[in-house]
Amino acid sequence: MGDVIISVRGTAQRRVAPELAIASVQVRVDGPDRASVTRRTGQAADALRSRLKELEEGERVVRWSSERAYFWSSRPWNADGTQLRPVHYGSVPFGATFDDFAELSGWVGELAEAADVHVGDVSWRLTDDTRARLERETAAEAVGVAVQRAQAYAEALGLGDVAPVEIADNDLLSRDAAPGFAALRMGANVRGAAEGAPLVALEPEDILVSATVEGRFAARA
């Protein structure tokens, strides 16, 4: 009797605290007068850039960026179906990356007091080095799980030790599919401080790093 081929899947995952926070912020202005909207948009964007430069010079922000200003107009309709006078809009998106979440909380608290500035979402990341290391370690753990499962099947069948034939990311043994690694960005719970207070509490959730592998093993009958 020849070798028995055993096909298994191994999965491993880790939950780790984020190392970086990326805040999306937008200067957003609207009004009936185009010139006023343009002026307010420029003033708010300039003030925000100046503040971010201060934080960068003090090494309180890892990096930041701003996009070009966007301006457009529209004529809304009221409930009676009448088209109203034009409304003009201005917008400038910003992004800022922090590795100190207390600094981020303080900055978001500052923005709560700023006119025409709106905080969007905060996303959480690992550094490239940490993510790469965790992916390697999690992949190795997933392979170990696959070996253990294959050996358990072999022993249940009264067979000897298993030898690897093929190892691949999830689904790659059967079809061309996405890799088995998944670094999932988790959301953040944002709690506003008491009314009138400048602080905002940010509660990041852990980041899930997982790996799934498929393996074929041969066991001698």
Shape descriptor reads elongated
Q: What is the percentage of strand-forming residues?
A: 35-45%
The arrangement of helices and strands along the chain is EEHEEEHEHEEEEE
- Report the C-alpha radius of gyration, rounded: 27 Å
Note the total helix count.
Answer: 3
The major β-sheet equals: 5 strands, antiparallel
- Strand count: 11
Q: Which parts are unreliable, with pLDDT below 50 for 5 consecutive residues or more?
A: 175-198
Helix content: 25-40%
Report the structural category: alpha+beta
Terminus-to-terminus distance: 6 Å
Task: Characterise this structure.
The protein has helices spanning 34-57, 101-112, 128-156; strands at 4-16, 20-31, 63-66, 70-74, 87-98, 117-125, 162-169, 181-184, 188-192, 200-204, 207-219. The chain is elongated and about 85 Å long. The protein is of the alpha+beta class.
Quick overview:
By secondary structure, the chain is α+β, with helices and mostly antiparallel strands.
Structural features:
221 residues, alpha+beta, five-stranded antiparallel β-sheet, four-stranded antiparallel β-sheet, 3 helices, 11 strands
Please specify the SSE layout and strand pairing.
Layout: E1 4-16, E2 20-31, H1 34-57, E3 63-66, E4 70-74, E5 87-98, H2 101-112, E6 117-125, H3 128-156, E7 162-169, E8 181-184, E9 188-192, E10 200-204, E11 207-219
Antiparallel strand pairs: 1-11, 2-5, 2-6, 3-5, 4-5, 7-11, 8-11, 9-10
